[in-house]
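[step 3/7] fold_predict: job queued, chain A
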Amino acid sequence: MVTQVVEIAADGNYLSKYRGFMTIKRDDVEIGRVPLDDITVLILSAHQITLSKTLIAELALRKAPIMVCGKNYHPLSFSLPYDNHFDQTGILWAQIDCGQPLMKRLWQSVVREKINNQAVILEYFKGSENPLQELSILIKRVKSGDPENMEAQAARHYWPALFGSDFRRDRETGAGNTLLNYGYSILRAATARAICGAGLTPALGIHHHNRKNPFALVDDLMEPYRPLVDMAVRKIIDKGEINDDPLTPDIKKDLAKILDSDVRLEKGVSTVMNSMHRLAQTFVTSLHEKENKLEFPKLIRSGNLF
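[step 4/7] structure written:
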């Protein structure tokens, strides 16, 4: 299946379903159409958009989330499918019964994988002040549950090395942060789709536990994928083509291509999107077997990532 992140950024569009397509109309004139089966996520960033109920239902049947973006492309809401998985109730009880020891071990592996991927990205750029040794040490120091917050300590080394000493990760300011927000939004929506497809309840996380966050598990499992966005943004910045409105159509396409990037799984090379489904499936296996069975993708220097 072709992976397509479809964004509607212009006001006044009407989206509906026609046969096997999502059609986009303005003033009753069709200006585009996309095969429904190819839509991974529909992003709504314009202020005024109209969607038909039939289209919403068809996207839900295909487990394609609809994401509404707010200021600076921070996601405000998701419309996720409520389609019963064959073992959804059993998986829900397995999530509820997951004890703290297993949660902590799972989070430990997530943090280790994230820091390792950060190190891989830094190694690729080979900066003169590259803190690879520090990150390698921090990976080994990540304990069950990461009580010493090695994730945050790694970030203090990682961000300056990747984007310069003046960079601050702030969702509200700067062109670089705007690009990161957009890329992370795509990751979040794709991870949500994989989690729901595996029959998991996204509100029940293993580390994120804010009661106001209905996507805690999504935010947990997307962490190792964030460095992919960081790398794409660094490449965009290095091209020197960023202006006052950094999210041009071409840049958005470059960020959306992350989901089709090549990664390596135990059974061979696959895409980021497919690896997310695999990670969600192995999370379910971990819950049932009460043992860490998570399978993370390995970044490879080939294909369309490097």
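[step 5/7] annotate
The first helix runs from residue 53 to 61.
The chain has two domains: 4-64, 88-299.
exit 0
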